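Researcher: Re-running this chain for the archive, since the previous output was lost when a drive failed. Same request as before.
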Amino acid sequence: MTSTVPNAIEHADAQQPPITMFGPDFPYAYDDFLAHPAGLGQVPATEHGAEVAVIGGGLSGVIAAYELMKMGLKPVVYEADRIGGRLRTVGFEGCDPSLTAEMGAMRFPPSSTALQHYIDLVGLETRAFPNPLSEVTPSTVVDLKGESHYAETLDDLPQVYRDVAGAWAKCLEEGADFSDMNRALRERDVPRIREIWAKLVEKLDNQTFYGFLCDSEAFKSFRHREIFGQVGFGTGGWDTDFPNSILEILRVVYTEADDHHRGIVGGSQQLPLRLWEREPEKIVHWPYGTSLAGLHEGGEPRPAVTRLNRTAGNRITVTDAGGDIRTYAAAVFTAQSWMLLSKIACDDSLFPIDHWTAIERTHYMESSKLFVPVDRPFWLDKDEETGRDVMSMTLTDRMTRGTYLLDDGPDRPAVICLSYTWCDDSLKWLPLSANERMEVMLKSLGEIYPKVDIRKHVIGNPVTVSWENEPYFMGAFKANLPGHYRYQRRLFTHFMQEALPEDKRGIFLAGDDISWTAGWAEGAVQTALNAVWGVMHHFGGESDPTNPGPGDLYDEIAPVELPED
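Model: Regenerated structure tokens:
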């Protein structure tokens, strides 16, 4: 059992085909596209060496730049902060360099198949992540309303937790055709996926997650809804998502995005950093040994973009923080979309007005974390009276909400994520310094584990992040509110530009907040590949007929379109 509350069906049949996060909105096989020996496509030789601005050096920007470089174009990457975006791995001052903290993305589902392509490409290893009640988590403590329950499996928890698990399974089955959709996604049965999803989008676009639960007879009990909100499924409590669209949650459970997570050994930021330095074996125009780093002066991206505007010939002109002005035939924008409203001076003519509206209405979730380094995984010590672990992965309704225990062996220094929170729970930490946060967290955990002196094991200063306070992010990830489906569709489909006026083409949106699976690195990868196809098409290029790209199959798999009137 890997979920606090399991999905509606157990996947005991090992012969079932694996699922992928291509999802119900746009069931395109990005993993097959990437694995095909024909490659992603080509541009005319007359365009080789043409510069393309790539704004944002997170995972989406680096992948877009890497694939454009392989086609023979010259990506010029702009980055305001550091390569990696929300794949941000940091160390602890004065501690062993092997001790790291994942300030952003830290766990990835096996269904992230396009992401896995790049993880494998750069030679990174993954290992199971210790989520609540997962097989690699020695024990979990659920602490609600001052009462704690110790568990190694779901069956160790009181009956009410199993009742809640059953209610969630029934709710999904009755309200969202879970088994039928899961089967269609596994079999990549596109017509059936579209048939099921079209009805659900029309029915549920105006429904919140909480409203969906309330409409289910299985969740008629407020107590069950309360426990589900605080304990949830997969990674833990989901009550901070209760105001969001239920469609967002269905995308997560359909694609098993919250199951069987794995972390990247040594830190997730290695992925974009290694891609930045990687010299592709198959590359057009550029000599063997070319890398993204090699195409940039000093091996570093250009500084932050401060202005974007259109100039004659439908070109995109970029001004950076150093005052340099460059003009491009095409650009890919992968930074957080609100940057276009605040940090970057933009012409209204960059996008159609409907797309500006969608950008303005994008709803972002706040998120905070705090990590401390400790001398060893002391939590594996046994309590002499009970024989239980002295401390466990912890889910609670106290300020900390989620506490994760991360070790690399019994005799090595380890790391504790003392608290991982979202939305209102994250905002509660915002005024506090790292040390002030740690003091509150230690107090809360001390009430759950009165026999454990966590402080005596701490060997360095805490590190923390509040993504809503990060100047180049202003939030952790997009999460649509009810009624936002149309806005998301506009942003996701922006790479298809033939229907746009000529003076609105040439700049392509990408990044996980443009995807249907925001908050997941897979969405960053998929939208990067969409943008690569769009840029290739813009330059007069095409995919190999044996490996059609996302734009080539668009008419068959385009997201459901809801009426505007």
